[in-house]
Amino acid sequence: MRTLFSRFHPTHSRFRLISMVHSKPQPASNSKVLVFGAGNFGSCLASHLGDSQHEVYMWAREEKIVKHFNLLHRNPVYLTDHSFPLNITAVGPQMPHRNLINSVDVLLFAIPTQFLRATLQTLRPSLDIDNLPLLIFVNKGIEVDTNALTLEIIADTCGAEIAKAATFISGPSFAKEIVERQPTSVSVASFTETEADKAAALFHQPHFRCYTGVDPIGIELSGALKNVYAIASGMSDGLGFQNNTRAMIITRGLSEMTCIGSAYGASPLTFLGLAGVGDLFLTCSSSNSRNYTVGYRLGKGEKLDAIIETLGSIAEGVPTTKGVKKIIDELGVQAPIASSVYDVLFSGKDTRAAVRELMELPPSRELELPPTAGEPARRLLAKLGLDTEQLNHLKHSNT
Ligand SMILES: NC(=O)C1=CN([C@@H]2O[C@H](COP(=O)(O)OP(=O)(O)OC[C@H]3O[C@@H](n4cnc5c(N)ncnc54)[C@H](O)[C@@H]3O)[C@@H](O)[C@H]2O)C=CC1
Ligand SMILES: O=C(CO)COP(=O)(O)O
Description:
Layout: E1 2-5, E2 18-21, E3 32-36, H1 40-51, E4 55-59, H2 63-72, E5 88-91, H3 98-103, E6 106-109, H4 113-123, E7 134-137, H5 150-158, H6 160-165, E8 167-170, H7 175-179, E9 184-190, H8 193-203, E10 208-213, H9 216-238, H10 243-264, H11 274-284, H12 290-299, H13 304-311, H14 317-331, H15 336-346, H16 351-359, H17 375-384, H18 388-396
Parallel strand pairs: 3-4, 3-6, 4-5, 6-7, 7-8, 9-10
Antiparallel strand pairs: 1-2, 8-9
Residues 140, 172-174, 227, 230, 279, 282-283, 289-291, 316 line the site of 1,3-dihydroxyacetonephosphate.
């Protein structure tokens, strides 16, 4: 649905009329939702929405998951102890038919970043921009070959109008704990604030709070970057370092994330939110994090290939570190911890040597935002047909 509206509140920004695409109006209850991905997080979110009485379809690319799930309401590979609500139907392994895609209110993507482009390319011919479902993305990563954020992947595959309507959910949210209904909060952001509001309304539950914002670039960078520091924190624990060291990594990691994000063109405040420091703290301090586990096992001396082969699940931080390194180099930002993680993962650097080198760096100013002016975000906004005035608004507004 295309409308003209002002994304910015007239009292705290210049009043601008922008042509934006909106998703179809959402029902007050019982939304029809199609979840792409039946891994830990796709299954978890399908369960969460099924639990809230929505009509849920979950696409799995593995036939055995589809068959097993529809027979027993359990996922044989992920969250295997969990019994799923009966109002979830697994579909696949072929792409869902366009009739299903066009009949749903919501499309939710829980697919690792490296596989998203191919999935969206296949899906695009079935999307009707005048009858667009609410589009929600929960992946936390950067595409390796292009350094693209998900926003750019959506723009490349589905067009700028659809990317502007996309909503991103990120924050401290282990799948296993959500299905146990442990109190959890997340950040929900979109360039189109009304879309973020719709996504928040869909997910909000007494045990699951949503906080909305308008800095999807910052939310995306937060989710991707925290995975790199979770690897660093796990590595430190694996080497036998203790609480002081972990606290240092989390705090200096937050500082690096904020510098990278700010130089990229995101709001520095976004990194103080749930998707930023919230998720950083969670994944840097729990062995339930796959990224932390990769780091921990590296610290114990295992080889990366062997760890990935036996992890049983995706650690987005590993490929994302490659994209982060390219972004840091392009921006000229000082991010020594992220650079060290890259060296350990991909240049064969010894983990203990990496820590020693980090500790031997000369003293430096503790907190300093880079002076660079957000060139990558400016390029991305231009691709989406948004301008730098809007970027500046984002940088100076609350998320
Ligand atoms: N597990 C968690 O607690 C959370 C995960 N996330 C994010 O959600 C995303 C998905 O993660 P998980 O479900 O946990 O991963 P997972 O490792 O549990 O599952 C991977 C999923 O990717 C699918 N997949 C594998 N190869 C594919 C391909 N070529 N094309 C399409 N799909 C493919 C698998 O079928 C499976 O559904 C990641 O970006 C992750 O960072 C975000 C928040 C929490
Ligand atoms: O992002 C997560 C929880 O918020 C999951 O982290 P891992 O991908 O490291 O397991």
